Amino acid sequence: ESDTASEISFQFNRHKKTPSIGSHSSDMASVSSVSGSVLSVYSGDFGSVDAQGTVEFALDYDEKNREFQVHVSQCKDLAVVDEKKGRSDPYVKTYLLPDKARMGKRKTSVKKRTVNPVYNEVLRYKIEKMVLLIQKLNLSVWHNDPLGRNSFLGEIEIDLASWDWSNRKLNWYPLKPRSLSAVTGVDHRGVMSLSIKYVPPGSLGKWPNNPPSGEVHIWVKDVKDLLQLRPSGVDSFVKCYVLPDTSKKSYQKTRVIKRDTNPVFNHTIVYDGFHTEDLKDACVELTVWDHEKLTNHFLGGIRLGLGTGLSYGISVDWMDSTQEEVAFWQEMMLAANEWIEGLLPLRSL
């Protein structure tokens, strides 16, 4: 069934007052930073203002410094957010798509009490030209509220693959309503095909207490439609932890599949040391990464558990499984010794 089988002894420490949610992996540290960035994409947007007006900007790529530059000049005739006071406090924000999290947001200063703000600011991204050419630029205008209830004023998206890079002049563009993907919070990162199985202690017979402790088997089959970070594709691998344990004993990974946005891993991992009652407090975290020499880039992941927000009575942010992930885990708990097949969307964690 698989090309690699790893058996890991797994023990929970129920006596700890706080779970071990820090990681010994530098990659895992970037998961939290990715999460914060992705959340900010959809933060605010409390306003019900119709998009109107125009924005003037220019695009350039500095070959010497390997830097993408967005020259934001000004906006005209923006919507009025506070009708009583007849004011808007606008600023401009940019992302590179499809992965908003990877490069992060850039934004201008806030101009107060105006629907015709003048910025004359440059937003910069350190990025290779060939990577930039498979991105889209999302530029949006927002009203800044002191309480954080920011209102969306309009946006524009530009496909950088078809952009005329000889055009460095400032041009005017009409602001458009929010796209459906932004409104619904869709952040497509691919889909993972996998199977899981729980083997309770002593359930296999033949020998006394075989197995002596419970086992969770995870069969990572393949992933479809990964984010393509380079023209040649993506060099991906999958990491696995059983939280709350983030030690080396819990950590497993697949081999790297090169230049493929639809990698087939066919990799099985077995964790033992489980008791049946542990299943309600544990969480299997599977994350997909793009492998590069200097640093690995987070592409997406899933968390299999009950999604209660609690682990052994302690509140933890990683017990956040979606409805699909919870249903998949519950089916495994109810069907001992049976492989449960699933197809789950990757998400930001």
Automatic annotation (TrEMBL):
<feature type="domain" description="C2">
    <location>
        <begin position="188"/>
        <end position="319"/>
    </location>
</feature>
<dbReference type="InterPro" id="IPR043567">
    <property type="entry name" value="SYTL1-5_C2B"/>
</dbReference>
<keyword id="KW-0677">Repeat</keyword>
<dbReference type="GO" id="GO:0005886">
    <property type="term" value="C:plasma membrane"/>
</dbReference>
<protein>
    <recommendedName>
        <fullName>Synaptotagmin-like protein 2</fullName>
    </recommendedName>
</protein>
<keyword id="KW-1003">Cell membrane</keyword>
<dbReference type="GO" id="GO:0070382">
    <property type="term" value="C:exocytic vesicle"/>
</dbReference>
<dbReference type="GO" id="GO:0006887">
    <property type="term" value="P:exocytosis"/>
</dbReference>
<keyword id="KW-0268">Exocytosis</keyword>
<dbReference type="InterPro" id="IPR000008">
    <property type="entry name" value="C2_dom"/>
</dbReference>
<dbReference type="GO" id="GO:0042043">
    <property type="term" value="F:neurexin family protein binding"/>
</dbReference>
<keyword id="KW-0472">Membrane</keyword>
<dbReference type="Pfam" id="PF00168">
    <property type="entry name" value="C2"/>
</dbReference>
<dbReference type="InterPro" id="IPR035892">
    <property type="entry name" value="C2_domain_sf"/>
</dbReference>
<feature type="domain" description="C2">
    <location>
        <begin position="51"/>
        <end position="173"/>
    </location>
</feature>
